[in-house]
Every structure is written in C-alpha cells, then in structure tokens.
Amino acid sequence: MPLSSPSPAPGATPRDLAAALALADADPAVAGVVLSGSRVHAGMPTVHSDDDVHVVTLDGRPSAFDGMDGHRSALLDLVVMSLAEFRRRGLPGDPMAWSRYGYVHAAVLRDRLDGGIAAVLDRKRTLDAAEARAAADGFLDAFANSTYRALKSHRDGRPEAARLDAAEAVPFALEALFALHRRVRPYNKYLRWELEHAPLGDPLWAADRLLPRLTELRGAGDLRALFRDLERTARAAGHGAVLDGWGDDLAFLR
User: What average pLDDT does this structure show over 145-157?
Assistant: First the structure.
C-alpha cells in the first residue's frame, strides 16, 4: 500500500491512497475518509488489489474532490459523496442498497466529526431488528418462489428453465440466511472469508459445507434439501409464517 506519494497539485486527481489522504487533510470540506474492499479483509488483497477509498464531504461545501467520484486507477478506486449521501448509502430505500456489504468491515481513516463518521458507518455494519425481519421474510419468500419454479420445470421436463431458476434461488437463499442472523450478505468474493471469520453458528452453514452445496446443485433433490435446511433455520428464528403461506405447496417444496 503506497504511503509516500507527494500531495497532488490543486485540482489534480490523487493517484494512490497516500495522495488521497494528503488532499483530504488539506481540504476543510472533507468530513471523513473510509477504506473498504480487499484491504480491510485480512488475507484477501492480491497484487491486483487497489485501495477502495470513500471520501465524505460536508453538505453544501465545495471540495477539492468535487468531480472525482468514480475515479479509478490501478492503485485507487475513489468514491466521493456528501455527508447526507453517506448517511443513507447502502441502507433500505437507497438505490445503492446493494453496496452495503462494502461498509461492513470498512475502516475509518479520517473522522473530523468527533466519531460521527464512525457512528454512521456502524449503522451500516449489521441489520437492525426491523430490517432483518423484513429482509428475512422477503428473501425467504423469493427463495421459495424460485425453488418452486425450478422444481416445476424439472417435473415438466424443462431442464434449462429448472437450472436457471435454481441459480436464481441461490442469492435469495444467501440473503435470507444472513438476514436471519441480522447480517449483511457478503459479496460472493468474500462469502468464504465471511463464513470462516464470522461463522453463522450452525455447522450446517460452515463454509466447507455450504459452498459446495451452492456451487454444485445437481438437481431437484439438492434444491429441496437446501430448502428444508433453510426452512428449519427460519422456523427456529420465528419466520415460519411466510413459509406457511405456501400452504399445500410446502409438501412439494420439501
């Protein structure tokens, strides 16, 4: 990780983390700087890894980072947003809610709000009770729906459709599984890392057991087995009602 670059010239885009921090330190409109990506996942960076840097600016204040959002180079991936945007980024209702996992293990590099940047970041790291219940119920239902479609296509002799629906069922299963534990589903790149560094508790969901099941679904039997196991976990967590809504089709799903 380069740390010795000189400060960029005024208006110049920083080329690496050190230059980005130097520019942030000289800019009174910067409220905070956050590092995410491979660098905050021990053992994950490679020779190809860049630094994922999120710069948060004070609302309504012109900043040296204006116009730099989305800048990418071999060494730096720069995200620039206002404090208001940072507060909602990744949370339910945000168009970029899919990006929330990027903040789960993120590190605060600069915080000029006396812990305010850290507090906003902490809000993103786990699901609150209401978020977790809504997400678990919604994704459980979506998983059941894709499983149902896959099983019907398998029954009716449509193997291509069955495989596609089974593939769509997997992300729904992961979203539901992590929501049942009030966790944010990791990006696929970090799924094994997450399961190994912060296990979900039940050996059923250990990395070496779960990942082969998800990547080697061979047919209806495997999909039904996954449904039955997730159903047991969901019912134990008090989410049986959404599954009971499938009525007589539950027997077919199992």
Answer: 95
Domain boundary at 125, 149, 166, which? 125
CATH number of the domain enclosing 39: 3.30.460.10
Total domain count for the chain?
Answer: 2
- The answer, yes or no, to whether residue 10 has pLDDT greater than 90, is no
Q: How many CB atoms lie within 10 A of CB 119?
A: 13
Assess contact for 2 and 18: CB atoms under 8 A.
yes
Over the stretch 19-43, which tens digit does the pLDDT of each residue have?
999 999 999 999 999 999 999 999 9
Nearest partner of 159 among 230, 226, 217, 231, judged by Cα? 217
22 lies in the same domain as 134: no
Query: How do residues 115-130 score in pLDDT, each as one tens digit?
Result: 999 999 999 999 999 9
- For 151-163, give one letter per residue: b (16+ CB within 10 A) or e: bbbbeeeeeeebe
CA–CA gap between residue 67 and residue 240 (Å, rounded): 48
Domain that holds residue 41: 17-125
